[in-house]
Specification:
Elements lengths: L4 E6 L3 H15 L4 E6 L2 H10 L4 E5 L7 H11 L4 E6 L4 H9 L4 E4 L4 H32 L9 H13 L6 E4 L6 H10 L8 E5 L5 H9 L16 H4 L4 E5 L6 H13 L1 E2 L8 E2 L3 E6 L3 H7 L4 H7 L2 E4 L10 H15 L6 E2 L1 H9 L5 H15 L4 E2 L6 H11 L21 H15 L4 H8 L3 H11 L13
Parallel strand pairs: 1-2, 1-3, 3-4, 4-5, 6-11, 6-12, 7-8, 8-11, 13-14
Antiparallel strand pairs: 9-10
Helix pairs in contact: 1-5, 2-3, 13-15, 14-16, 17-18, 18-19
C-alpha cells in the first residue's frame, strides 16, 4: 500500500479490540495501518468526526447503540467509509439487514484473521475506487459543466436556463447554431448535469465520415460484413448504452441511414451491419446542426418523421457577434489558457486591441476567437498584445467601429443589418425578431408583414427560441 490507511475497530469487549488490532498489525506490519479503537458506538462517532476512516469494523450487538445504528450514522458523517459487520450471532437475517443498510461485508465471530485481512484490503480498494470516481466526476463537471461554457450575456443565460431545464429529462435534444459556437460543449453540459452523468458520452461527427463508414461507426459490424471487416466491432450506439450519444452535423446523414436511425429512436433496437441479432440500448440522443433542418425536410433531403423525433427540445446557441459582451470574458480565459500552455508571461490585451476584437464579427465564432488568441500568444513579443499586433481584419473592424460601422449601430431605423456570411437560418431569425419588435410583439401583425401564417410564426418563434415580451394567444388563423 502506498499510504497509511485508517481502520476503526468498534467492540464492547476489550479482548476483541486487542486481538483484532494485533491481527491486522501483524498481517501487514506494525506501520501498515493507523488503527483506532472504540469500546462503544459513541466513541466511534467521535473518531469518525475527527479522523479520515477508511474501514470500520464494528460489532453488531453492543450495549446502547448497536452496530446497525452506528453504521447509519457513519454513512452521514463519512459516506466513503466501508463497514465490515462482526457478530457472534450469525443469522441470515442479520447478514441481510446489515448488507441492506450498506455494510461492505459480514463476518461471524470468532473472526478468521486471514479472511478479515482480505476483506479489509477489498474494502480499502472499494473506498479508493469511490474516491477516484468522485474526483473524476468533479473533473468532468469542471470540464463540461457550465464553468466551461463562458458567457454572462442574456443570450447565454437563456442557454444555461434551457440546459438546467432539459438535463434532468429523457427528451431528445436538437442543438442549433453556426459552426464554432460550441454545440458539443452544450451537449456535454446537458450530459454532465443529467442522471446519465456516470454513463458514457459518445460523440460522432457525421460530416467527417462517408456513408458506409458512418453506418459502421454508428451501428457496428459483424466479422465479414464487408471487405476489411476482419473482426466484429460494436458501434457508437452500443458504446453509448446507459449514457448519451451526440450526433454532430446530423443534417449530413444519408437518407438510408436516417431510416435506420429513426427505427432506433422508435424501438431502441438495431442490428449491426451484416448482423441478424437485435441489440437493445438505452441511450439519450443529442443532435446538432448548423443548417435549417426544416428547409431540408421541405426539399426532401431530410426525413420529416426523423426531424420530429429529434426536435423534441431545441436549444439555439447564439453566434458570437450577437453576444459581444462575452468576448472580453472569453479573451481573458483564452489568454490565461494559452499563456500557461506556452509558458509565456502575457498579461492580456490593451484596451484598443480588445475593442478591435469586440468590433469584429467572428464568422467562425468562439472557435475562431480561440484560435486567434492562441496565435497572438505564440507570436507576442511583449507582455501585452497591442492593436498593432493584430491581423488586418481586426484593425479594419476597429476602424469601422470608430466610424460608427459596428453591426447594429449603423443600420437605419426599420432595417436589419446582416454581415456577409450570415446563414439563411440566422437571417430568418434576425428578420423575425426585428419584425416582432417593430410590431410591439403582436404576432398577428408580424405574421402579416412577413407573409406567413400565425401558426408558422409561432412555430418559428419556438424553433429559434425567440424571446417575446408579449404574444397574443388568440386562435391561429
Amino acid at each position: 500500500m502506498t499510504d497509511k490507511k485508517t481502520i476503526l475497530i468498534v467492540d464492547d469487549e476489550e479482548s476483541t479490540l486487542r486481538g483484532l488490532k494485533q491481527g491486522l498489525a501483524s498481517a501487514e506490519g506494525p506501520a501498515a495501518y493507523t488503527i483506532l479503537l472504540a469500546g462503544r458506538a459513541e466513541k466511534a462517532i467521535e473518531a469518525l468526526q475527527t479522523h479520515n476512516v477508511d474501514v470500520m469494523l464494528t460489532d453488531l450487538r453492543m450495549p446502547g447503540m448497536d452496530g446497525l445504528e452506528l453504521m447509519k450514522i457513519a454513512a452521514t458523517i463519512s459516506p466513503q467509509t466501508q463497514t465490515i459487520m462482526l457478530t457472534a450471532y450469525g443469522t441470515v437475517e442479520n447478514a441481510v439487514e446489515a448488507m441492506r443498510h450498506g455494510a461492505f461485508n459480514y463476518l461471524m465471530k470468532p473472526v478468521n484473521l486471514d479472511n478479515l485481512e482480505l476483506l479489509v484490503r477489498q474494502a480499502i480498494e472499494t473506498r479508493e475506487l469511490q474516491t477516484q470516481n468522485i474526483e473524476l466526476r468533479r473533473r468532468l463537471e469542471e470540464k463540461f459543466g457550465f464553468e466551461n461554457i463562458l458567457g454572462g450575456s442574456p443570450a447565454m443565460q437563456r442557454v444555461f436556463d434551457s440546459i438546467r431545464q432539459i438535463a434532468p429529462t429523457k427528451a431528445n435534444v436538437l442543438v442549433l447554431g453556426e459552426s464554432g459556437t460550441g454545440k458539443e460543449l452544450i451537449a456535454n453540459a446537458i450530459h454532465a448535469n443529467s442522471p446519465r452523468r456516470d454513463g458514457p458520452f459518445v460523440a460522432v461527427h457525421c460530416a467527417a465520415l462517408a456513408k458506409t463508414l458512418l453506418e459502421s461507426e454508428l451501428f457496428g459490424h459483424e466479422k465479414g460484413a464487408f471487405t476489411g471487416a476482419i473482426a466484429s466491432k460494436p458501434g457508437k450506439l452500443e458504446r453509448a448504452d446507459g449514457g448519451t450519444l451526440f450526433l454532430d452535423e446530423i443534417s449530413e446523414i444519408d437518407l438510408d441511414i436516417q431510416v435506420k436511425l429513426l427505427r432506433v429512436l422508435e424501438t431502441w433496437q438495431f442490428e449491426r451491419v451484416g448482423g441478424l441479432k437485435p441489440i437493445n440500448v438505452d441511450v439519450r440522443l443529442i443532435a446538432a446542426t448548423n443548417r435549417a433542418l426544416e428547409a431540408l425536410v421541405h426539399r426532401g433531403a431530410f426525413r420529416e418523421d426523423l426531424y420530429y423525433r429529434l426536435n423534441v427540445v431545441t436549444i439555439t446557441v447564439p453566434p458570437l457577434r450577437e453576444r459581444r459582451d462575452d468576448i472580453p470574458i472569453l479573451v481573458e480565459a483564452f489568454v490565461a489558457e494559452f499563456a500557461a500552455a506556452n509558458r509565456r508571461k502575457i498579461t492580456g490585451l490593451t484596451p484598443e486591441a480588445l475593442e478591435a476584437l469586440v468590433a469584429y464579427d467572428w464568422p467562425g465564432n468562439v472557435r475562431e476567437l480561440r484560435n486567434a488568441i492562441e496565435s497572438l500568444i505564440v507570436l507576442a513579443q511583449s507582455k501585452q498584445i497591442t492593436l498593432e499586433m493584430l491581423p488586418a481584419q481586426f484593425k479594419e473592424a476597429a476602424a469601422g467601429a470608430a466610424a460608427g460601422g459596428l453591426s447594429g449601430d449603423a443600420a437605419p431605423s426599420g432595417s436589419v443589418l446582416l454581415p456577409p456570411g450570415t446563414s439563411l437560418q440566422e437571417a430568418e431569425r434576425l428578420l423575425m425578431e426585428e419584425t416582432l419588435r417593430k410590431t410591439d410583439f403582436n404576432v398577428s401583425r408580424a405574421a402579416k408583414l412577413l407573409g406567413v401564417s400565425r401558426r408558422t410564426l409561432h412555430r418559428k418563434i419556438n424553433e429559434y427560441g425567440i424571446r417575446t415580451d408579449r404574444t397574443d394567444a388568440g386562435p391561429s388563423s
